[in-house]
Amino acid sequence: MVEQGKVDSTKDFHPAPVWLDEAYLEPILRVQKKDPGLRITELEIKPATAKGDNYASVMTRVKVLYLNAGAKTPEVGYYIVKTTYENDPFASEIFSGYQVSTTEMLMYDKILPQLSALIEETRQPEQVFAKTLHVDYEHDAIIFEDLAITKHVLADRLAGLDLEHARLSLRKLAKMHAASAALNERQPGLLTKLDHGIFNRHTKGFAPFFENLVGVAADFAAETPELGENYARKLRALREKVMEYTTRVYDPQPEGFNTLVHGDFWVNNMMLVYGEKKEPLDLKLIDFQFCSWSPPAVDLHYFFNTSLQREVRFEQQDALIQYYHTVLVETLKDLKFGGYTPTLRDFVLQLEKGKFFAVTASLTCAAILTNGETTDADFHALMKEDERGRRFRKLLYNNKSLRENLKYLLPRFDRSGLLEVTD
Amino acid sequence: MSVSDLISAFDAIPKIQAVTPDVPASVILDAPEWLTEGYLQNTLRKYYSDQRLRIDWVKVNPALGKGENYGGVLTRVKAQFTRSDGTSQLGHYIVKSTFEGDEFAQNTMEPYDIFNREMEIYEKVLPKQKALLLEIGDTEQIFAETMAVDMPNSALIFEDLNARGFVMPDRLAGLNLKLARIVLRKMAKMHATSAVLNQRENHCLETYDRGFFNRYTENYAPAFVGMFEAATRRVAQWPGFEATAEKMKSLVPMYMELGKRIFDISPGHISVLAHGDLWTNNVLVKYDKDSGEPEDVIIIDFQYVAWGSPAIDLFYFMNSSLEFELHRDQQEQLIAFYFGIFSDTLRRLQYQETIPSLHQFHQQLHQKKFYAAHVSMSVFGIHRNVETENADFNALMETNQRAINFKNACYQNPITSRVLRELLPVYEAEGLLDADQ
């Protein structure tokens, strides 16, 4: 099935924004470099992500050569321009329900800079986010520094993070969460109004994706001797409940700790800097389209079940939770947060309350996020009820790693009652 | 010659059937003074409703050794008697009575009121629970049948399950999966029937609020906190555990309060009449003669029943009485197994309140998980103690040097040490060693 204006799916699919040219970028750079006489001499544009790396937006890498006023040799600047699926009506209609660009623009424009300022006030300040260059409300675009230039790279999403990387990520996350709680305390309502996460009470646009994949998981269970018909039956019954049960995890808990969650906290939304001996030195979080005011369980269960090496995921979760909690509490204290600070025990219980999201993430998100078969890996294939879509989703479950992990996890989810339909 | 030698000597005497002129003399060794042949004859006459029943001989001796029971005196009775229709019978009984003559023990245990409670439970509560099971066609036997309840003497007389082939499992070994599941099945039915009984009879079970931790007394603190402090001393010796030992030390002032919160009723949680002391020694097992496989289980010793969370029994049992691998790795599966039977029995008995989903139940138990840590750290060591020389009530409950030495010795046991080594990191990571839980 070929749609008008679409490229053949075997070639790279890159709907670059048409307005992105020298005329557009020059005024922006002039402001940023504080040089009204700046001139762009060369502009190179190419896709920033490969298929399978990003389903929710279009990323364009821009290399700009420019001459400062009176200079002879050009300087070079590297940026990422992030835009929506504006050429793709199917995708853009669904995404508009999630207000992704509104959320992200608000984040880069107003919120992240304030969070960064707060983290600077703490005893152990560090940078957690990439620096914004420009937010363009008219074109729904965000331009920020290309972290690749300062040697930031993506981690290997197929292998997953080891313990050291996991701790580094969680340290940054804990600071973001703590700073957000403090920011909302100082400006009440600023962050609590964000409520368009991947699961939210306004739209169920992504439902076909989640429900279909739970169905595929049920088929997988049926044909796996170690699992069998019992699990298949439970998963089939869970199919029509997965959206509601997961959305409940996102609802702010009146008696729990809530904060601004990242909402898509997985390995591909982190950029790392490595040292000479390949040790991770620093990490920045990117991609703030799905932030919402929710319990931290949203980020933690998602992270644990999409981004870790198997042994870390299965053996070290408790230690990681404890570490995250320590950083969270220390940062809240530094920021003189006066609101509810959970004890470790409280926090563990709150995570357990939101544990259903671990099920969703393991059955659905883990499938796409650890997928190695990138030929058909795009938004349409995830969502559509056509032959291509069905084939792709079934293919996702051929992933050996995924299968092994589910054989281990499904019995564990089952025995704490997480696969039951309760209402 | 020791008492046990004497007993073995008597056991070697060939059994003589009744109605012979040459009847052996009755032997009563080391028993409560009111436990005479005459007393037993009266009891049997009442039980069998036969005023002309006549005892031919009795043999009475202590039932347990040191370190096996801190909660009272158990006396084994073998009685040969003839009924009014001329038939002869050999009966086996256990008489359970209070500690006599030990003032310290009596004073310490007094606020827990264990003897009166147990008699009340056997007389009034357990028979009703049995009736509830019969209502739904379940004839499974969960506890021993009572022969007599003697309030004035604070004594209970049961059929001696030993004679039916029930024995105490190896206290030092830990139960295997098959046995654990049998126990949990019975526990689930006990709990479910108690919840229904409480509902039908106007909340009558809610007055049982004097379990091991309660809001009336801290008399057992020297045992619990004393054992915990001994654990802390042991852990402090291990490289890499210094920080853990420090955390444990800081927990000491909060320890009793954290235990009491387990026994407090949490709103919205399902409540049951918990056994309160459900471990290996309070479980009698019938093993198959040929295969050696466990076939059935009877639960005994209802001195510490308390109305509250099923966690009281579940965490106590699973953290004291299982083989190591089950203790460390399989508790969630066992809870799910228990819950299937628990919820099913509640439904069949048409329990009128909300039955939680498994995940809700899981979360409710999770809130009481300090008890799991308490049992693993402080109670396990008592149960698995191998130094029986000094294993008595005083060593457990006092704070003098002898008592400290006894508790330290408990932690020399390699199994007890292993439990600490492998489970403390888990408890710590879940915040269960934090003073501000």
TrEMBL record, chain A:
InterPro entries: CHK_kinase-like, EcKL, Kinase-like_dom_sf. Residues 142-334 form the CHK kinase-like domain. SUPFAM superfamilies: Protein kinase-like (PK-like). Keywords: Transferase. GO terms for molecular function: transferase activity. This is CHK kinase-like domain-containing protein. The keyword Transferase applies. PANTHER family: CHK KINASE-LIKE DOMAIN-CONTAINING PROTEIN-RELATED, PROTEIN KINASE-LIKE DOMAIN-CONTAINING. The lineage of its organism: Eukaryota, Metazoa, Ecdysozoa, Arthropoda, Hexapoda. It holds the Pfam family EcKL. SMART domains: CHK. Gene3D superfamilies: 3.90.1200.10.
From TrEMBL, chain B:
It comes from the Eukaryota. Residues 156-348 form the CHK kinase-like domain. Pfam families: EcKL (PF02958). One of its GO terms (molecular function) is transferase activity. This is CHK kinase-like domain-containing protein. Keywords: Transferase. SMART domains: CHK (SM00587). InterPro entries: CHK_kinase-like, EcKL, Kinase-like_dom_sf.
